[in-house]
Amino acid sequence: MSQTVKGVIARSKNAEVEVVDIVVPDPGPGEAVVAIEACGVCHTDLHYREGGINDEFPFLLGHEAAGRVEAVGEGVTNVEVGDFVVLNWRAVCGQCRACKKGQPWYCFDTANATQQMTLAEDGTALTPALGIGAFIEKTLVAAGQCTKVEESDAAAVGLLGCGVMAGFGAAVNTGQVTRGESVAVIGCGGVGCAAIAGAKTAGATTIIAVDIDDEKLGNAKAFGATHTINSEKDDAVEKIRELTGGFGADVVVEAVGRPETYEQAFYARDLAGRVVLVGVPTPDMELTLPLLEIFGRGGALKSSWYGDCLPERDFPMLVDLYKQGRFPLEEFITEKIGLNEVEKAFDTMKGGKVLRSVVTL
Ligand code: APR
Ligand code: ZN
Ligand code: ZN
């Protein structure tokens, strides 16, 4: 028995999103149906709509979500009906080379549901954003995409499913920030602010926020930045060096995804510092760096993909920190909206003034 529910799709490149009827099959082996309670609006959703990811329209958008397991298929053991879960787009296989090497955050073969959700009007199969698709009343996922967490506010903890995890993990998992270190974060949107909050949680004592927007720098302070730099007014690299005894930061997190900010990140680190790249560039972007500088600087240059997270390890931990008042998840929520307001949320996002719009159901 399938069921028909409301969900938000992008039908074709750049077309406005629509709320339509979608058929959700009962979960097959290894699958679960989750009643979505909240789902954040992420840049990647807009990117799908703009055709920037692939051409597999129509897309079922939304991928940063929390909800309750409504049904599970055969062989599912990690979650049960009624569990409160955060969805993830990294259900690792345990079998590939990366998993076997003990580096499952590089898993080559992450699981998605094998059945498909379809348009009620004509049976067209939908491509779920990042294998999730959560701007919908109920969604079908692989059971491994569900991580059980303690009961908590869905709008807040749903954000762990993508941007906040990416930022926190960039600082804590990829950057390995430790107590007493200096951290510079370039770009203070949702991802950058999560990196700042992560650095604070890890015990960094100097946390420098860099942005071109003073309002974003104000946000950054609320998340734990000890210093701010407006890089349109001041030279970010010079200022970061000044604030770190002339050395550069132990860890620099780049959370913009542009050549000039990649370059700043490269030069703003201490000679033995780590640069973490979490901002996603477009395919046309290039950066030239002197080889001697690359050679001459030790430390590390690392990209961070989904904050190198392991959902089973990191989501419950972050929910605990949130519930203990040590990680301000609700501060990322700029507005709560309905399913029919996703298009408007994209406009607000383009205006650059939100951290996160969150669809609540
Ligand atoms: N220098 C510094 N900050 C900049 C610059 C720049 N040249 N250009 C833009 N910014 C700032 C913006 O003002 C904004 O505060 O970067 C921030 C980007 O934030 P958002 O647009 O909210 O994006 P966010 O969701 O935080 O994602 C940032 O990380 O995971 C990736 O795909 C994501 O590439 C994106 C990046
Ligand atoms: Zn694997
Ligand atoms: Zn996302």
From TrEMBL:
One of its GO terms (molecular function) is mycothiol-dependent formaldehyde dehydrogenase activity. Residues 10-359 form the Enoyl reductase (ER) domain. Its cofactor is Zn(2+). Keywords: Metal-binding, Oxidoreductase, Zinc. It comes from the Bacteria. Transmembrane segments: none annotated. Pfam families: ADH_N, ADH_zinc_N. SMART domains: PKS_ER. The keyword Metal-binding applies. Gene3D superfamilies: Medium-chain alcohol dehydrogenases, catalytic domain, NAD(P)-binding Rossmann-like Domain. Its EC number is 1.1.1.306. NCBIfam families: mycoS_dep_FDH (TIGR03451). Belongs to the zinc-containing alcohol dehydrogenase family. This is S-(Hydroxymethyl)mycothiol dehydrogenase. It comes from Dermacoccus abyssi. The lineage of its organism: Bacteria, Bacillati, Actinomycetota, Actinomycetes, Micrococcales.
